[in-house]
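Troubleshooting: if your tokenizer reports a length mismatch, compare against these two reference records.
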Amino acid sequence: MSSSFNRWRPHPWHGIEIGPDSPSVVTAYIESTPFNHIKYEVDKLTGYLKVDRPHRTSSLPPTLYGFIPQTYCGSRVGELMSEASYGDDDPLDICVISERHIDRSELILNARVIGGLPMLDDGEADDKIIAVLEKDHVWSDVYDITQLPAAMVERLRHYFSTYKVLPGEKSSVMVGQAYGQEHAKKVIQCSILDYQEKFADYNGIA
């Protein structure tokens, strides 16, 4: 048995470590799965998973979807995207590919970063990091997004381009071409620095 442990439930955003091998391998907290018709997200005050809204369209997330703990999309993340005025003031989002179906959320896993999608939402940078489940038997040899089937990447781009839009509405979202592992690692490193600056005096949930 480990000599140390958390007696109390850690806050998923602030109390879970990003992992010793970041930004190559990171801890991911999963909020939604490809089987969820409801969009869930962590309540920033309590740390519990809450219902955000039912999905507005028939689209469902193609992969596991959540965020990287102890990251924040602020000015540094925004500066990496020329069209953005700032980050979206949220933890950095991550999509995790797994061969086996994982049908529950509110869990943590180790994910190897392979790339990302630059998403601009109402002028704010809302990057989607793309990763594969560490030790996955099918995807274990994938280290960069260029090694994924093109159809899988396009499916992710299409989902994030359209998941908020109803017929007849104009989208406020722009999703650019995917970037590789090296740029994804820069985004993660900037989000860590943004987090450290934002929560430098963090002594509890504000």
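Reference record two:
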Amino acid sequence: MSFPKPFYRWRPHPWHGLTLGPQPPITVHAFIEITPFDTVKFEVDKETGYLRVDRPQRSSSQPPALYGFIPRTLCAQRVQALSPNSKRGDGDPLDICVLSERPISRGEILVNARVIGALQMIDGEEADDKIIAVLEKDNVWGMAQDIRDVPQVLVERLRHYFLTYKLIPGETSNVVEIERVLGAKEAHAIIDAAHQDYDEMYGSG
């Protein structure tokens, strides 16, 4: 018996063992760590590839979209160069938010996502951009090609979430800044840069 290619006899690491996507940087894979129903922040464990509880959310804020990362990307030197007010990349895979009309309540899944824009975000002087995408073949958002094709209120909800998700109740200081809302072409450039940063660090094998 012959197995299809690629075939994984064991579970691949979601950051290193999966491909960038079917048509990067336009359509990419998104490994989902958190859903809009989660009150705990989950994050992939870089050593094992399993989801780990990063922290319970201290506030009532919940992500307004599916939230995860793009495999084989890294926020390092090239990503930082596209964010001139940052001092370094955050050293993590590139984050992505995926809009879906149908509620998806299960994390640790892989989805195809069409990239439509990004939030250029700086977290404690580190470039920490958030790619914005729509679920491929989604009945409502699937035709969107650029950030201008979705209601502004959805973008504002994402902005509000990331501007407040690290705030500690009772404190007013915030280490997170959102510099700009970017369109699809600029988001594509960030993904290309993050993939090159990844290849330089880990190789393209």
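Descriptive notes for reference record two:
- The chain has a mean pLDDT of 92.
- The two ends are 26 Å apart (CA to CA).
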